[in-house]
């Protein structure tokens, strides 16, 4: 339920004990969570909020001509005055004029006038809702008036997106509009030093990735240590100090989270952990020995692999053999639990984590690849010795084990914003969980123009080799007609395999994956040109706006080929959404293999039947069941993660230490 006090949680917002503004953790129970889930599901399907937003958007559109004759200075002064009025009792009446003034300023500074559906989305964001807008409907522009209105009221505003590239792109786009209002705009990038980061957060509008803002928050909590209480803060001020001195953030005021389903759902299965590196010692020998012993164990008899949950368990026979193998070894190998944990981590590294899928080797280091965004996650490591085991497996320098300094889940972090909102193209089916975990009500915004994109076909091939050969033939067919083609793959390895097949077929193309992410802007800019062929991992599946080149619209627009279904159908739809944006024509198709990992991991028995019978009806059933099972397993993982996080919080509360 809402995080206030009083009956059913409705009442004043509970502030956390902190040097800067943030909300206290919610107080709830199983009944609250069940009611929240049901409420979120129900409200998302009722049209009342959408009708109300549509009425207000019409009022704003009717007010816009009133400000067309004003000078820029008059508009700016009016925006500041109206924003202050919204803070007063009864100030809701000033919201429509404020949004009309901001819409006029956007038109003058950027040459774009927000559509009525974008005004609806902006109003929803300002109210603290999760707005679902179809891909290509202009969510970047939608966020601008909402972010500016909050900043004009003096709130710290964070526009959160999934990576540095999108944060920098969106900040650059809003900059002329913000300058006209006298607001400062800054971007937080991964490689920034602490002083630059603090300066960026001091801006009126800060564009930042979800990982960056969460880790910066954790660094602040570590810097604060135990000195967080109000008494200590008052004492510090009395002796001439500043309560928030030395902190990176200036508060968790208002957040607009772009690609919210990716941040709130897909990336919320694991906590974010801030760690330091412990001494290496005899790390090389320890992990090399673990890999050697693990390679001597047999699957089935001595260990069992659960590929769906990516877990490995030693059998009693495996534990006994490991004990015999470890005879004569020293250190951790003499301790039963320690050696079994090392052996399991070695088996996981050998059998469940693959190079070019889960990670790449860059400049002699293991770099984790985010399975949802397709991007390298710098400075991120696996915990519990797994990262070091993979380093030993790949014969790169083994780093020291990580010691946890602080950790937090996305669910817990984002609930700490005083006001939270989000926008996505695929969030409607998640409305119950979004309400339960983040307190957000989902509102679906209608399209500005009818969808002109067509899905051509879905084809299942017996083997991966058949699939790649057919994809190359299909690409050649579309390319010969002058249309651009975007081919989506799930891994770096798959993108490079397809690249080799296209090269052999004499088809010129560009590849965008974790290895080429520095060239992203250039590759995306060219992807909509006549005859362009682009092979991309999930990097191109979210947030990228592929603009059609001259003459492409008349030839049918962009053609998107999906080569492997994802664990969530939402991510498939995000890739399809690169075509047919803002009413442009476009086509999509899926060309997949029955050998794909999704089916092997989540429906292995049905996969064997489907490979034998080759029935289109059975293929479709296998896809739906595999994705449904994957979504269900991930939802269980997220709920379990939140439960464990709360239990850990209660345990640490005994010592006065949290996070």
From TrEMBL:
Q: Boundaries of each SecA family profile domain copy?
A: 35-622
Q: What class of enzyme is it?
A: translocase
Chief location: membrane
Q: Sorted alphabetically, which keywords does the UniProt record give?
A: ATP-binding, Cell inner membrane, Cell membrane, Cytoplasm, Membrane, Nucleotide-binding, Protein transport, Translocase, Translocation, Transport
Q: Which residues form the Helicase C-terminal domain?
A: 470-629
Q: Which GO terms describe its biological process?
A: intracellular protein transmembrane transport; protein import; protein targeting; protein transport by the Sec complex
Q: Where does it reside?
A: Cell membrane; Cytoplasm
Tell me the InterPro entries matching this sequence: Helicase_ATP-bd, Helicase_C-like, P-loop_NTPase, SecA, SecA_DEAD, SecA_motor_DEAD, SecA_preprotein_X-link_dom, SecA_SF2_C
Which EC number(s) does the record attach to this protein? Answer: 7.4.2.8
Q: Which domain of life is it from?
A: Bacteria
Matches recorded under PROSITE patterns: HELICASE_ATP_BIND_1, HELICASE_CTER, SECA_MOTOR_DEAD
The UniProt annotation places ATP binding at 118, 136-140, 545
Alphabetically, the GO molecular function entries are: ATP binding; protein-exporting ATPase activity
The protein's topology relative to the membrane is: Peripheral membrane protein
Which reactions are catalysed by this chain? Answer: ATP + H2O + cellular proteinSide 1 = ADP + phosphate + cellular proteinSide 2
GO cellular component term, pick one: cytosol
CDD domains membership? DEXDc_SecA, SF2_C_secA
Function of the protein: Part of the Sec protein translocase complex. Interacts with the SecYEG preprotein conducting channel. Has a central role in coupling the hydrolysis of ATP to the transfer of proteins into and across the cell membrane, serving both as a receptor for the preprotein-SecB complex and as an ATP-driven molecular motor driving the stepwise translocation of polypeptide chains across the membrane.
Assembly and partners? Monomer and homodimer. Part of the essential Sec protein translocation apparatus which comprises SecA, SecYEG and auxiliary proteins SecDF-YajC and YidC.
PANTHER family noted in UniProt:
CHLOROPLAST PROTEIN-TRANSPORTING ATPASE, SECA INNER MEMBRANE COMPONENT OF SEC PROTEIN SECRETION SYSTEM
Family according to the record: Belongs to the SecA family.
Protein name per UniProt: Protein translocase subunit SecA
Name its species.
Answer: Histidinibacterium lentulum
């Amino acid at each position: 339920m809402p995080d206030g006090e009083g009956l059913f949680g409705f009442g004043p917002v509970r502030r956390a004990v902190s040097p800067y503004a943030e909300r206290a953790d919610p107080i709830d129970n199983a009944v609250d969570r069940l009611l929240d889930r049901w409420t979120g599901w129900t409200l998302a399907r009722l049209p009342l909020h959408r009708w109300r937003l549509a009425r207000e958007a019409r009022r704003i559109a009717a007010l816009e001509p009133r400000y067309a004759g004003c000078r820029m200075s008059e508009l700016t002064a009016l925006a500041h005055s109206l924003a202050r009025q919204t803070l007063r009792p009864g100030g809701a009446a000033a919201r429509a004029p404020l949004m009309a003034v901001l819409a006029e300023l956007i038109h003058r500074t950027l040459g774009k006038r927000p559509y009525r559906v974008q005004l609806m989305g902006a109003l929803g964001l300002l109210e603290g809702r999760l707005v679902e807008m179809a891909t290509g409907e202009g969510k970047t522009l939608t966020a601008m008036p909402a972010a500016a209105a909050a900043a004009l009221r003096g709130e710290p505003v964070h526009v959160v997106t999934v990576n540095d590239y999108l944060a920098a792109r969106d900040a650059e786009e809003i900059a002329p509009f913000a300058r006209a209002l006298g607001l400062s705009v800054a971007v937080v990038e991964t490689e920034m030093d602490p002083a630059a980061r603090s300066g960026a957060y001091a801006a009126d509008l800060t564009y930042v990735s979800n990982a960056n803002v969460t880790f910066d928050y954790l660094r602040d909590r570590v810097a604060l240590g135990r000195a967080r209480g109000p008494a200590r803060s008052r004492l510090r001020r009395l002796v001439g100090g500043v309560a928030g001195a030395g902190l990176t953030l200036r508060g968790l005021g208002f957040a607009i989270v772009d690609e919210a389903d990716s941040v709130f759902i897909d990336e919320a299965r694991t906590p974010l952990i801030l760690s330091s590196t412990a001494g290496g010692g005899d790390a090389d020998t320890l992990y090399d020995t673990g890999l050697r012993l693990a390679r001597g164990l047999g699957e089935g008899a001595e260990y069992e692999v659960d590929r769906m949950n990516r877990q490995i368990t030693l059998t009693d026979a495996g534990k006994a053999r490991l004990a015999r193998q470890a005879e004569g070894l020293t250190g951790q190998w003499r301790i039963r639990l320690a050696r079994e944990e090392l052996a399991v981590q070695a088996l996981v590294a050998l059998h469940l984590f693959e190079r070019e899928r889960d990670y790449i080797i860059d400049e002699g280091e293991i770099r984790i690849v985010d399975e949802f965004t397709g991007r390298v996650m710098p400075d991120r490591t696996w915990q519990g010795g797994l990262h070091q085991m993979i380093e030993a497996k790949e014969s790169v320098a083994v780093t020291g084990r990580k010691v946890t300094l602080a950790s937090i889940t996305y669910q817990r972090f984002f609930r700490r914003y005083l006001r939270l909102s989000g926008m996505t193209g695929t969030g409607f089916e998640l409305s119950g969980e979004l309400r339960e975990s983040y307190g957000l009500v989902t509102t679906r915004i209608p399209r500005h123009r009818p969808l002109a994109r067509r899905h051509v076909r879905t084809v299942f091939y017996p083997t991966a080799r058949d699939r790649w050969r057919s994809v190359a033939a299909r690409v050649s067919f579309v390319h010969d007609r002058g249309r651009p083609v975007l081919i989506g793959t799930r891994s770096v390895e798959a993108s490079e395999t397809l690249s080799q097949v296209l090269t052999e077929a004499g088809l010129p193309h560009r590849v965008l994956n974790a290895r080429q992410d520095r060239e992203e802007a250039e590759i995306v800019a060219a992807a909509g040109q006549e005859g362009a062929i682009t092979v991309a991992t999930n990097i191109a599946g979210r947030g990228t706006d592929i603009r059609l080149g001259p003459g492409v619209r008349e030839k049918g627009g962009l053609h998107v080929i999906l080569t492997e279904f994802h664990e969530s159908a939402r991510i498939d739809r995000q890739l399809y959404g690169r075509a047919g944006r803002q009413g442009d024509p476009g086509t999509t198709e899926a060309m997949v293999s029955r050998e794909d990992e999704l089916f092997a991991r989540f429906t292995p028995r049905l996969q064997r039947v489907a490979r034998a019978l080759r029935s289109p009806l059975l293929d479709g059933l296998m896809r739906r069941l595999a994705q449904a099972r994957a979504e269900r397993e991930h939802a269980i993982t997220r709920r379990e993660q939140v439960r464990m996080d709360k239990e850990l919080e209660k345990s640490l509360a005994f010592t006065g230490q949290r996070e």
